[in-house]
Amino acid sequence: MQTNIVIHVPHSSTWTPEKHKGEFLENTLPREVLRMTDRYCDELFNCGDMVVFPISRLVCDVERFRDDEVEMMAGKGMGVIYTRDSEGNEFRKVSAVERSQILRGYYDRHHELLTLNVQRKLEELGSCLIVDGHSFSAVPLQYEDDQNEHRPDFCIGTDDFHTPDHLAHTAVAFLEKKGYTVAVNRPFSGTLVPEKYYRKDRRVQSVMIEVNRGLYMAENGGKNESFEKICQLLKELIDRLKGGI
Fold first, then answer.
1. Measured between alpha carbons, how far is 21 from 243 in angstroms, rounded to an integer?
2. Are 121 and 114 in contact (CB under 8 A)?
3. What is the mean pLDDT of residues 94-117?
4. Burial of 94 (0-12, 13-18, 19+ CB in 10 A)
5. In the structure, what pLDDT confidence band is assigned to residue 243 with cuts at 50, 70 and 90?
6. CB within 8 A of 128, min separation 6: which ones?
7. Residue whose C-alpha is closest to residue 210's, from 157, 161, 165
8. Count of alpha carbons within 13 Å of 7, Cβ hemisphere only?
9. Sheet strands side by side (includes 182-184)
10. CA end-to-end span of the chain, whole Å?
């Protein structure tokens, strides 16, 4: 059965194309990939029409604003193209020409694909709900604004324009009933909407779901024994959100 949900997973890939590896300082990539990748989110959220970015966020972060002037993380060297690592150290050099090529080749193509998927839902069904799928470290990373060590099991991210109150309330109530701790816009806030519709079209709704990696990952980066349980939980949650549109 067709639904108006598009699942967006921007940070699950660990792949750095060979042509970009020389941009990074030696031996920095493996450490940062482990820290910064929302590993397995493409599997966790695999329960509907998906748009998954196939390249590591360390090469290009498609969740950021394209323009560093409006992207608050750019001040930390972690805008659309990272130049600093999770500890604030410089770890990559990208020329203006390389930056332009990366934006056109990766960022623009990804957002064109996402926009096309949203547009199809609007044309066929009259509305679209974007579920922005992420995970976060069980302990705060140095670059993060929220350094509270008591992290929730789940974070629900919202946007004042694109996230109706009932969507966030439905997600929180469902997860808490299952026995999990939940925070809204903590440790991360917001949720992605394509620029074409951002703050312009209320038919496009969006909610971010962030999963604490301690729920489904082992310390070595592999899956733990609860992985399938969390997969099923997210499927049930997205089904519940679908019913609330």
1. 44
2. no
3. 97
4. middle
5. low
6. 4, 5, 6, 118, 121, 122, 203, 204, 205
7. 157
8. 26
9. 49-52, 5-9, 128-136, 204-212, 154-157, 182-184
10. 16
pLDDT value at residue 53: 98
Three-state SS annotation for the chain: CCCCEEEEECCCCCCCCHHHHCCECCCCHHHHHHHHCCCCHHHHCCCCEEEECCCCCCCCCCCCCCCCCCCHHHHHCECCCECECCCCCECECCCHHHHHHHHHHHHHHHHHHHHHHHHHHHHHHCCEEEEEEEEECCCCCCCCCCCCCCCCCEEEECCCCCCCHHHHHHHHHHHHHCCCCEEECCCCCCCCCCCCCCCCCCCEEEEEEEEEHHHCECCCCCECCCHHHHHHHHHHHHHHHHHCC
Annotate 103-113 with b (16+ C-beta within 10 A) or e (fewer): beebbeebbee
Backbone angles phi, psi at 209, to 5 degrees: -120, 120
Question: What mean pLDDT do residues 127-154 have?
Answer: 96
* pLDDT higher than 80, residue 2: no
pLDDT tens, position by position, 4-28: 999 999 999 999 999 999 999 988 9
Is 245's pLDDT higher than 70?
no
Q: Chain-wide mean pLDDT for the chain?
A: 95
Residue matched to tokens 């990804």: 110
Between the CA of residue 86 and those of 49, 83, 153, what are the distances in Å? Answer: 31, 10, 22
> What is the rounded average pLDDT of the residues 60-72?
96
Q: What percent of the chain has pLDDT over 70?
A: 98
